[in-house]
Design brief:
Elements lengths: L6 H22 L1 H6 L12 E2 L5 E4 L3 E10 L4 E10 L18 E10 L2 H15 L19 E2 L2 E2 L15 H9 L3 H4 L13 H5 L8
Antiparallel strand pairs: 1-2, 2-3, 3-4, 4-5, 6-7
Length: 212
Amino acid sequence: MQEYASPSERLKALTDQLEQGVSDIFQSGQYAAYLQTPEVEHTSNEWKQDKNGIWEISNRTYKMRYKISYEKAADVYLVSWGIIYNAPKQPDSNYRNYWGDSIYVARQDKKKYPSMEAAQHYIQGRFDLYCHLFREISPPVPNECRRMFSINGYLAAGYTLAPPDKEEPNKKAVDDLLACLDDADAAVPPAEKPKVHISEKKAERKKSVPVR
């Protein structure tokens, strides 16, 4: 007759396995590397300019930089900007992001404008589009970037993962449903006169791109 382990025996076996796993991590040095990972540098969501004229705003997860330069020969202003993931440094000095994840959220290089005002207007628009990334010191890490923010397979200290995106509706199911509607059901209601309203995004905006 087969004998089954008692609850206390199963608990002891589970505890032994956990202790062995923790011991293996300590012995391999992975835990030490995890704890010794230096904090990323950032500007606490404030704009700061470096000695090369590059403006930066950053936090523990994102970093945005831009520069506007004047090209005298063509009489144009060049705008270069980019937003990257401000991921912590990996313990291995030879680390090379081997899985191929891009560090860029978005970027544009040497976009031409006829005046400084036009260039500033453009970069302000780019910042308005991504300003929600710079409202917290430690924004949640997108799930697809978890590896980038992990040390030896563990999410770096102080970081959290963003909740998974809501699933998009099944396109085929929606099409099938619409096909079942009568013409009267699918009729477009009379167009209403558009109302002037203040953009919610602009109403919330608290930061502006610094003007040179």
